[in-house]
Protein 1
Amino acid sequence: MSIDLKTIKHISKLSRISVSEQKAEKLANDLNSIFDFIEKLNELKTDNVEPLTSIAETTLKLRIDEVKSKNLRNEIIKNSPQENEDYFVVPKVIE
Amino acid sequence: MSDITKQSLSELVKNIKNKKLSSKEVTKAFIDRSEKSKELNTYITENYSIALDSAKKFDEKPNLDLKLPGIPMAVKDLFCTKNVRTTAGSKILNNFIPTYESTVTQNIWNEGAILIGKLNCDEFAMGSSNETSFFGNVQNPIDKNLVPGGSSGGSASALAAQLTPITIGTDTGGSIRQPASFTGTVGLKPTYGSCSRYGIVAFASSLDQAGPMAQNVKDCALLQEVISSYDDKDSTSIDFKRNEYSKELTNNIKGKKIGIPKEYRVEGMPKEIEELWKKGIEYAKDCGAEIIDISLPHTSYALPTYYIVAPAEASSNLARYDGVKYGFRAKGENLIDMYEKTRSEGFGNEVQRRIMIGTYVLSSGYYDAYYLKAQKVRKLIKNDFDEVYKKIDAILTPSTPSSAFKIGEKKDDPVSMYLNDIFTVPVNLAGLPGISIPAGHDSKGYPLGLQIIGKAFDEQNILNIAYAIEQKINFKNKITDWWIK
Amino acid sequence: MSKNNSEYLISRNNKQYEVVIGLEVHAQVLSESKLFSTSATKFGAEPNTQVSLVDAAFPGMLPVINEFCIKQAIKTGIGLNAKINKRSIFDRKNYFYADLPQGYQISQFKDPIVGEGKVVLDMPNGQKEIGIERLHLEQDAGKSIHDLDPKNTFVDLNRSGVALMEIVSKPDLRSPDEVNAYIKKLRSIMRYLGTCDGNMQEGSLRADVNVSVRKKGSKDFGTRCEIKNVNSIKFMQMAIEYEANRQVDLIEDGQVIDQETRLFDTKKNETRSMRSKEDAHDYRYFPDPDLLPLEVSDDFIENLKSEIPELPDEKKKRFIEKFKLSPYEANILVSDIETSNYFENVIKKSDVKLATNWIIGELFAALNEKNLEITESPISAGNLSKLINLIKDGTISGKIAKTVFEQMMEGDKDPQKIVEEKGLKQESDPKALEALIDKVIDDNRDKATEYKSGKLKLFGFFVGQVMKVSGGKANPQLVNEILKKKL
């Protein structure tokens, strides 16, 4: 198992983190040593094991259909980096 | 009273209730000491003047029926606090001021405590040494240039240095118990679902759990009693009968069956830790507990499993930090450019590394080999515990495979850093409660901890065992106040 | 292109191609609050006024599921004759977009709440069954607005987190007409159930359209393209037509079709590749660790079954059997829950045959002209029923009824009153009619003579004259009888 620079580029794209060439090499090294250690799991046969879906020993609670959250526009937008009273604003999306 | 900050929580509560101390005196004492302790770098955000006002207000109309009447307290900066900056130790949240309060901290303020500040931690709780924080290293009060552990490093350090009488941390793979062990303090990771995750900056949702940190087991029990509550705002919060842990605390553990897992005797573990463990076993026997050798066969798979599950969840949990709604935003030519620069500049190296690992193990073609495999092994690890708990009541292990290490010692070797959590991680994977108590010192005089792992929802039992052993050990932290000039 | 009654085929160079279509319909669940948060779902609110901390993905915010949305999804599943899964799992679909605050959409991937089902379409050449692959619950995204500012995109999160049902069909559809019928049928079923209002203008119902083509008779599927987010039936049909022809042209040209996501440009009437989004499409689905598996009991499902109203197919069957309607009439009357309610209210107290004709004929035409829904009809079911009874008991003629109807359309007036006020009551008194008829014959002596000498066609002339003189009020049947005797 080896993670190459192409893979690093791909996952950096997926995770929306830009990575310089230099950083990519360091990351590839780190990830390779981490995955070497993770590969230990391959020692185990798990074909007949049900994967765990939740560790909480309870069932999903259901909420009543009620509107409780009021208009929080000011509160919600207050922390946003760009000034606008009504909207979140981001640099133009290019399609 | 000049020694206010030396008092335990229980003593402070008693003195405030008896009106021997006012909240303001106590609050001021901890603030003064915190001011003198800047070198430890435990605080990210100070809330001193508001805290003093609150203390004054408390004293004017004291409600002495509360569990934490007028008690000052600093908390890990992973808990969202209304109108007080919350950073998660990250540049990306450097300027974030929540308009809401986490359930756990709300429970604390409801019992009369007062927020004096937000404590340093590894960025998004990802680390075992507090070295990944955007706000810099934290010093362990035990010795200069020693890490306090992590991720709740600021909490552990502030607690051990008596800058706060009690505190709270979060524990995803050992982030409460390991720093408690490194600083000679007590730290409890409750059962998954015991404390609400609402308002806590998420790292890995299926593993994260808030918990109390204190100078002794009794204080720890009291704080657990305060923070643990069923919360309908958290779908994974569990509605079970919660004890009044401090009231029901007892050192009578006669007949309790305590398991000793052979798999925790890991290769290369220092002799001192082996000795400490033996000592712990003897103490437990002295208290009337029955010691039983057990096996948790999948223990060695816990860390690899953890380093798939936790980064996978984190890669998704941290997607919301994109520069759009709050926090840091880098300039970008277009939306995607903005995302990539914001996240590259806003997250530190360890966080980026884990996001990358998580993204990779979930990506098309690798999901089954990694994520699904890990969830299956996680099931096996949980089954190991379920199996032994048919015969025993609790498990005794060392908290960490070593004492605190030097700042910078493991920084460039992620795997050796990860190995530090080898004894704590299985507990998170299985959703169980675990407590670390200080049990001795190594040859350098650094504290070492023992961990007691319980059955799900059985916090009372491990608190009792910890309480009994604590009394036998009679541990004294060796802190010289070297940082105070 | 060739079209016969049963098949939609595309012809090129003496070869015929069949079009294979599958739809992923996104239907907004009718609910007060959102799927995982307590903010409101109302359409048309001011931007970002229906956004909770959860919807905007603030740190530490957690989803808590809305029980009613689960019920709505299960009811819809029952309406689609589908298997209800007692255990389903919510997954995160991870991707970055300005209007997706969490950086993931909570959806259901491997274990949806509803499994396989079917709907039956009434096509001109008979019924056709369309398979349903699955129905799952998911969150809607917010809205990106690109045209408010030259350099920036504005984001409104009001819709973020609203519950959607994604209904995935099997690739059973073969023509734009079938797509039309399928969407209308889904819409009708959901409106009967009250699970989705089906309002396409407001975006409550939209679809991703999967299109592929294959040579007629081939069993293998061709490479498909997905046309994203089409929000009207007309556009779906146009997009399919364009896309199918594009694919046939490519094949005929010896080229390969790329499996890709495309966009329908409604102005240019063409589909376009959305390649920019393509490379980032690895959604990294995994079970949402903030939620647990959703488990519903048999009792829960049975209770919901007992709340299911009569659905269009059953209603149609009943209308045909009980009221002797033609399948055509029944189809029209059951297609929409409001129409069928109106019809059933009218026939409570009046003749079925007349009611059917009046609703499908006069009422629909009049509503259409005024661009009104049946719920907005100026004529209530009660008053239409009265009008029909006035015809039935001979108080007014069908012709007069139309005049009365027109006046009723101006405001919901009681037809009885209109008839009285305007003196429109039918003249059925034989003596009065005889007097009238005598006068008409007297005034047209020469024509009467011609008639008697064999020019029988003139009978119609006399009927017309009598009706004219009576101001249309003479009972036509009686007029006929008396005229025959007198002449």
Note: Chain A touches chain C through 36 residues (CB under 8 Å).
Protein 2
Amino acid sequence: MKPFQYLRPKTIREAISMAAEDPDARYIAGGTNLIDLMKRGIVSPSKLIDINHLPLKKIEHKGDRIHIGALALNSEVAQNKLVTVRQPLLVKALLAGASGQLRNMATVGGNLLQRTRCSYFYDTALPCNKREPGSGCSAKEGINRTHAIFFYGNETPSCIAVHPSDMCVALAALDTAVVVTGPNGERRLMMKDLHRLSTAQPELDTYLAPGELITSIEVLDNVFDKHNHYLKVRDRASYAFALVSVAAALRMEEGKIWDARVALGGVAHKPWRYWAIELMLKGKEPSEALFREVADHELKSATASGQNAFKIKMTSNAIVAALKTAAGIS
Amino acid sequence: MANDHPDDQKDDMHDPAHEDRRFFLKQSVAFAGLSLAAPHWPLAGTDPDDVPIGNAEKVKLSLTINGAKKRLTVDPRMTLLDVLRENLGLNGTKKGCDFGQCGACTVHVNGQRTLSCLTFAVMQHSRKVETVESLAKGKVLHPLQEAFIKHDGFQCGYCTPGQLMSAVSCIREGQAGSAQEVREYMSGNLCRCGAYPNIVDAILEVKSKGLKV
């Protein structure tokens, strides 16, 4: 690992100034992904800005939303009463991710920014457009059973890696704002605008500007607390990244669906929100046939790269299963 | 005994293998100095109340390890795992994958189970770390250690320190209510000998007896 300078700012302003001064500096919070990348020589920061002492851990409900500090640990969020009562889907997604140890280390901000687990991204002996733009994508003709099936419009993707987070899939299904602070002040992005789907610049995962720091997320109140489910399909029963995951949330009254949210994980360069489903389910009575119809509709635009062809059927099945559980039909 | 270990301030200057690297580091730092005319940020810990002093080479930190306060000077690249094993001679904590995938390096930091291979030691400054060496009290084994022996919760034993530290947390966190729950909440600890059913039995027994862990 290359030497770095270790810095420990006491204020957000100090942290941002440190980052603004040096484009090769990196913030570190839980470190569960960054240290991994540093050990493998994929990221070599000149400076590590340890933000763990910044006051960004608070979880509170104000107005119409829960504010979750960027440094709140995944385990803290999953246990917090405000979150368990108001946002059970987020809790389910958090607990489906990683292990007890990692959830005690990983922060909300770090989870939003975690890098893909594509094996070629981690293998410095082989080309990878995300690691070295322009070098090529080894996954396209290689081992790609875990790779993406949804892409940006008609773009020929330069990278077919997927975003690995579970938490982000739930946040994409719910209405979430991401609050960031940078050299030019504070701004809010909706979750859909944080991650890049286009791989025109495959080295970039998000639309954050250099030096910007995620300070909190805001999850808006909703009425999905009774009918929601996070389904994660993976190679082993626990502690594995998703082949496909589905965050499904419904608002049902008098046997009919009045509002629906579905987002998918493990299928695209970013958490994939299934926007069309909201209109397709509105006012309908839940049934397996209906769920199958809407699931297959979305998969019409899916494209496999070879080994991941099975994901198309698997994603459709997972959407149906997650919606059935959320709706409470067997 | 960890407390007697002389390596806290281990100086690698006399090790020829390190001299080239140190020369290289000094050289790169000198070049970096030429290009960095920008204002210099106060390094972590230049405040007298704050112990660590960071630079591109060594940093100072203090940790409470198994109840004993340790002051160390380490390379900021050293993980907590490496500091425990290499500087403090606490070899109970194991290095399995070193990439946060196997759980062999599990320790408790401020009471929470943590992967010591995925955190730099300097980031844990002033925190309390407990390792597998803290479980037995003298010659009296911890209830989970007794249960692992009784139920054959290991073969080669390499993953066992991590399994034990994780098992303590699993019970303390209230996640040992059933075999299924134990399997889910112990899934971050791999055992290539496949002693899983016996590990689950050991944890469930300690939990059902209501023993203090």
Note: The mean pLDDT of chain B is 83.
